[in-house]
Amino acid sequence: MTFGEKIAKAIKKIKGKLIVSFILWLILVIVFVAPMGMSIKEGLEAGNGSWRR
Predict the structure, then answer these.
(1) Dihedral angle at the C-alpha atoms of 44, 48, 49, 51, nearest 10 degrees?
(2) pTM score
């Protein structure tokens, strides 16, 4: 069994877990990052402060 075959077998074995992990990661990005980006944009447009530390 060559190294390439071992990698292909490993990927085939964890393919479902990789897909589930990617979907969960995408949901977390949408839930946590997108609202923060939108609020920063709206705050800068309204002139209610600068988002500087």
Answers:
(1) -40
(2) 0.57
DSSP state of 53: -
What is the Rg, in whole angstroms, of the alpha carbon atoms belonging to the chain? 21
- Of residues 53 and 48, more confidence is placed in 48
For 14, the token pair is 């964890």
Q: Are 43 and 49 in contact, with CB atoms under 8 Å apart?
A: yes
Q: Which amino acid, residue 20?
A: V
49 vs 38: CA distance, rounded Å: 15
Q: Extract the tokens encoding 43.
A: 């705050």
